[in-house]
User: Fold this.
Amino acid sequence: MRATFKQLFQENRGFILFLMLMFAFRSAVADWNHVPTGSMQPTIEIGDRILVNKMAYDVRIPFTNVSLHRIADPVRGDIVIFDSKVSEKRLVKRVVGLSGDMIEMRDNTLRINGEVLSYTQAENGDMSEDLLGVRHIVRTKPFGSRLSNFAAIRIPEGQYLMLGDNRDFSADSRVIGLVPRDEIQGRARHVVLSFDYDNYYLPRGDRYLQAL
Assistant:
């Protein structure tokens, strides 16, 4: 039996090495993530496959969360992927609050360090939010929800406040709490592929390599 396994390894070692290198690359360098919910709509659609740069912030040991070298820290407006210990899920959200920030939300209007953010009307009833220099689209319900308000909070060192762009339909820091730096896995800036779940999973041609 041992000889059989050894023989199989020798005959397929090139393929096995390829698989090991591919998984190591996806674990530590770059990967793509499937997005199954609408919490980041309209920026990210259900069925999008987003490209994740896993070396945007850290050089990590493959298959672990151990950082060998910190390259940079997330900045406000980044779309990040993190492994949430609270929700026990891998999530994608937008960085809204940084360490030291004082943040509150009233009727889906954010106030950061005393400054009320600017909102203007966009297409389809959505709003364009100026996140202190990073403009992006957010979606809200006409009459809000229980998520539309939260009291002022000071963000501690090493923590981040994450929000989904679909503000009334996102289990983000308003539900799971602040996100520690070591849970953040990478940054997403492009859609790789997208499949329309409501149309027989056909590819969405207009989403191919769409910038986020």
DSSP finds two helices and 17 strands in the chain. The longest strand covers residues 184-196.
